[in-house]
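Human: I would love a firmer grasp of how sequence relates to backbone shape in proteins. Take your time, and here it is.
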Amino acid sequence: MKTSFLNPMRATLVAAMALLIASCGPQAKKDEASGGTAAAGALSGAGATFPAPLYAKWAESYKAETGVGLNYQAIGSGGGIKQIKANTVDFGASDKPLKADELAAADLYQFPTVMGGVVPVVNIPGISPGQIRLSGELLGAIFLGEVTKWTDPRIAALNPGVKLPALPITVVHRSDGSGTSFLFTSYLAAKNPAWGSKVGASDAVSWPTGIGGKGNDGVSAFVRQTKGSIGYVEYAYAKQNQMSHVLLQNKAGGFVAPSAESFGAAAAGADWTAAPGNYLLLIDQAGEKSWPITGATFILLHKKQANAAKAKAALGFFDWAMGKGDAEAVALDYVPLPAEVKALVRKQWAEAITGPDGKPLYTPAP
C-alpha cells in the first residue's frame, strides 16, 4: 500500500474506505449450532490504530473470498477496551494488553494477532531518514521537555559529523488513549528514570510538553507539518507516509533501524506459554538486531458469548487471518505470529470462548 508524501492523509482514507466497504457484506447464513442468524455484514470491531492498515487489508481479502464483511473503527486502544467492555462491538482491539486480573474482572479473553514496532519520527530539514541517532534515555529527556533544541550537546554527542539545525524541538504525542503510547511510554520509563518517576507508562499520560494528535494518523500529520518536530507512530504509518525515522540504541548498545527484521529479532525470544492471559511486552529485548520498541497487538473477546453466531463469525475471521493473512502482514511490515503461537491461540479459543449454553464455539482442526 503506497502513500504519497504530497497527500499525507491518503493512507488513513484508504484504510477507512476499505473498512467501510468491507462492512457492506451480504446477510449471513443460518448458524445451525446456535439456531440464530448472524448478519455477516454487521461483524464489528473497534480499537487500536496500530493494526488498522492490516485489518483493512484482511477485511478486504476476507470479504472477497467469503462474502463476510467487517466494520472496524480505528478509535485507539482505550476506546476499543471501553467498547468491548460495554458490549457495543463484537471484538475490541488494543496494543496495550490487559493483565489477567483485569481480564477476569470483565470476563474477557485476549490473544495476539501480529507484532510490529513503534518508531520515533522526525521532521528536521536537511536530515535524511536514519541519519539521527538517539538513545532511550535521551528520547525520554526530549519528551520530558529537558532537551529543547536539536543543537543540544547531548544530541550532538550521539551524532558526530551531523550538521544539526538550530531549530527548537516540538514534541508530538497522542491525544487519545493509545496502546502505541503505552508501548512508547513503557520504553521511556524503562530507559529514563526521570520519565518513570514523573510520568510513568500508560495508554494515556499527562504529557510534560508538546502537542497532541488523535491516532497514528494525527501524530503523523502534525510531524509532517511542523519543522523541528519529533513524534512516534506505528511503523506502517511511518513507511506509508515516507516519514523520517531515527536510529534507536538497543539493549546490546547498537543503533538499529526499524524494520520487519528488527521487530522479528525482538520477538524471537518471546515465551507466550509463560504469559498469563497472553500478557507479554517486547520492550528492550536482547539481541544485536532487536528494535527496542516492539510489541504485539491484541484482540479482546467476551469469554461467554450471548450471540454464538456472531462469536463464531469473529473467530472465523481471525482463524482465516492466521491461516492466510501472513503475506499481507509482511507486505505491510508487520511480523506474523510463529506457527506454535497460532496453535496455542487456537487451542485457547476452544477452551475460553463459549456460547450461551456454555459449550465451546471453536473446534481446532486436527
